[in-house]
Amino acid sequence: MDFKTSRDVREVIKSPLNYVVSDTKRWEQSAAYYLDTNHAVDAFVKNSGLGFAIPYIHNG
Length: 60
Fold this sequence. Notes:
Blueprint: E1 8-11, E2 19-22, H1 27-37
Antiparallel strand pairs: 1-2
C-alpha cells in the first residue's frame, strides 16, 4: 500500500497494513485500539485509499 496522507496514523498489529489513518480526532483511534487489542478480532483494515467496495442495488 503506497499513498500519502497528512492525517494522523496509528500503528497496529492485527492489520495487513502497519498503520490506520485517522480521519477524526479521537473516535477512529479508539476503534483501532479496540480492534487491535480485542481477542475476538483476528484481523481488520480501514478502507482508506484501498478502494474496497461492496456493490448493491437499493430499491430495485
